[in-house]
Amino acid sequence: MATVQQLMSLEGRVSVITGGATGLGLQMAHALAEAGSHIVISSRKLENCEAAAHEIEKIGVKALAVGCDVTKADQVEAMKDAVLKKFGRVDVLVNNAGRAWVAPPEDMPLDRWQQVLDLNITAPFLCAQALGREMIKAKRGKIINIASIDGISVNPWETYSYSASKAGVIHLTKRMSLEMIKDGICVNAIAPGAFASEMNREARDHGDATAQTIPARRIGKDEDMAAAAIYLSSNASDYVVGHTLVVDGGVTLARG
């Protein structure tokens, strides 16, 4: 029987994190690197990726920066080729890139609606498709889709496009997991609650006030997402299939 340390180790693996140059993506990249994984940081701005990769390498693993618009299939394929050229393999994909656009339904511009859906649900599909093909060849892999508690329960302050896209991510995760588990690939999701990030400006700028609306009476810490990402990336979760791990301090319970 493997030890806990062996189960949670990512030593020698290669993990791709989209939207990994900032925020929750960078937090998870640090965590996976500390567990031993080599890291690929991907986002649209290559300079941000390069800065993050340089930071990651200080941990003692290899890192690759790739500029990529993950809503574009050709750029996703180019990212995959860059990963294989440097590392020859891919073991973990964290579909973290996402966005929101705040507007009531009667004022939501169609192009903004489409941009949110393209990045939040089409991009995870494209990345899982391209990198998943390599995982299928290897008969192993972990795919983690970053959803949201707003895809599980109704948040009256959240936008329609964001909530709809994240609900879609959760269902995509379930459906994809049924197809891919036969090839040894575990597909799961993480649904974070309030974390101080660029996207969640309310939690970032008004953390104390936001904390009072959370049963745990605090917003999420870096280590909260880190632990979830390591678990779902490691052998410890090999029997976890199509699950959405909620990391929210009890908010969805309180919403009912």
Overview of the molecule:
The chain has helices spanning 4-8, 23-34, 46-57, 73-87, 110-138, 160-180, 201-205, 207-211, 222-233, 251-255, and strands at residues 14-18, 38-43, 63-67, 92-95, 141-146, 185-192, 244-247. Helices cover 47% and strands 15% of the residues. The mean pLDDT is 92. It has a 7-stranded parallel β-sheet with strand order 3-2-1-4-5-6-7, sandwiched between helices. α2 (23-34) crosses α9. It is of the alpha/beta class and 256 residues long. It has a single domain, classed as NAD(P)-binding Rossmann-like Domain (Rossmann fold, 3-Layer(aba) Sandwich).
Q: What is this structure's SSE topology?
A:
Elements: H1 4-8, E1 14-18, H2 23-34, E2 38-43, H3 46-57, E3 63-67, H4 73-87, E4 92-95, H5 110-138, E5 141-146, H6 160-180, E6 185-192, H7 201-205, H8 207-211, H9 222-233, E7 244-247, H10 251-255
Parallel strand pairs: 1-2, 1-4, 2-3, 4-5, 5-6, 6-7
Query: Total strand count, please?
Result: 7
Structural class: alpha/beta
Order of SSEs = HEHEHEHEHEHEHHHEH
Tell me what portion of residues adopts beta-strand conformation. 5-15%
- CATH homology-level superfamily: NAD(P)-binding Rossmann-like Domain
Mean pLDDT: 92
Overall 3D form = globular
Using only CA atoms, what is the Rg? 17 Å
* CATH fold annotation: Rossmann fold
CATH class wording:
Alpha Beta
Low-confidence stretches: none
